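lol so apparently i was supposed to do this last week
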Amino acid sequence: MSEAGDVDVLVLGGGPGGYALAARSAQAGLKTALVEAARLGGVCLTQGCIPSKALIELSGKIAGTRELAPFLAGGIPAEPQVELGRVMAWKDGIVDRLNTGVVKAMARAGVEVVQGWGTMQDARTCIVRGAGGDRSFRARHVVLATGSEAAALAAVPFGGPVISSTEALGLAALPQHLVVIGAGYIGLELGMAFRKLGARVTVLEAASQILPQFDAALVAPVRRRLQQLDIAVHTGIAIDGVEVADGQATLSIVDNGTARTVAADKMLVTVGRRPRLAGWGRENLGIGVKDGAIRIDERCMTTVERIWAIGDVTGGPMLAHRATAQAHVVADQLAGKVARFDPVAIPSICFTDPEIVSVGALPQQAGDRAAIAVAQLSFAGNGRALTLAPGEVDGFLRIVARRADRRILGIQAVGPHVSELSGEFVALLEMGAVVEDVRDMIHAHPTLGELLHEAAHSLH
Ligand code: FAD
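anyway here it is w/ flavin-adenine dinucleotide bound
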């Protein structure tokens, strides 16, 4: 083993939490080592946010060609046949490009990137096992950013045709029938994308509603679109087990009291993600764990001084922008500043068709119904929304405000491209805007954001 020596900061895990932290820490003049076993960028860049959004966009464009039929003489000459290998190659190209960007950014900042699997021996020592042998680091500060992994279903273990989102994003051939188990955002985003690429898709969900983190009104346009796309959605499903033979998986389920089977050549299990707590020496650190995640305080410090933790390994919401925001909070403190992770709002986006964005409180979370005012306006009257694609526009934008002082408590939208409105929604909540602030802001025409302005007017 080679003694790599002392560093000021050792970061374990190079996802959007870890690499953001490492760059800021090195820029502040601290000797920083970033340990990553796979590729820089983590789940988000290589197996999550970016590859899934690439697939969603491209599948949307391919499906969109069918909607152009009424405008073309003779209609669409033939049903588009997708070459999945080329779709994946395009997606991989985007991942490679962004990964190269992160590699260069680390080099520019002066971060030492250590390729290999890190294991904490004690609160200050990490041994990294890489291709060139083992290296040992002593660190003044340790930042744990080991991320999360797909949760497995005991009755349907991963393997063969039973896959997680990671394998789904690297499939070489289009499944004939894809069964998605779990109707959260990852399952529905990928299910809709594969349907648009040409696969038959069935969604099974244990709860009584899909996307249970949102209210029924926000989810309704997505439900209607699933129906339009001919994706069968079954809620209230209990799964008993799976049998695999000849590359086919057959699920035994209880569908609202009735036992039956469902067969498919691919079963995508998307029942959530779990903080990655095992395999890297957590037990040698004496840090606290709460609800299956590393326990941290508002500084992002674990229960042991100078061991910090950020991102998915600290629990939910498991989102890349939360991991990065926590990284900045820790980086500020390492540079000697006072900082706390105390955001007013963490935006939540579902890149389904149509998209859902939610910032702050939903109406039922905002308190006593009599104390709040809600304005909900349809995109069907918004000029920009109507120009985005042929066909009906299904969606709305909603402002939730407190009656007493007009303070905006939450903003939600469901509709085409509404994810791009999230920045404005967050800014308004973070800056403590009242309804009249939005009413007095000029929104460009024609844009989706005009509906926010109109909603503020109607509340006023
Ligand atoms: P991760 O990105 O999980 O990175 C952790 C890294 O640590 C990994 O690269 C791993 O190899 C490395 N590592 C772990 N342990 C060790 C060790 N001992 N030694 C060396 N290396 C180690 N979030 C969004 O905000 N928007 C989205 O649209 C979105 N879409 C998603 C779609 C999918 C399909 C999935 C799966 C996730 C999606 N997410 C999305 C979630 C997002 O990917 C995570 O919230 C984010 O990646 C968490 O960042 P992180 O830094 O905590 O850890």
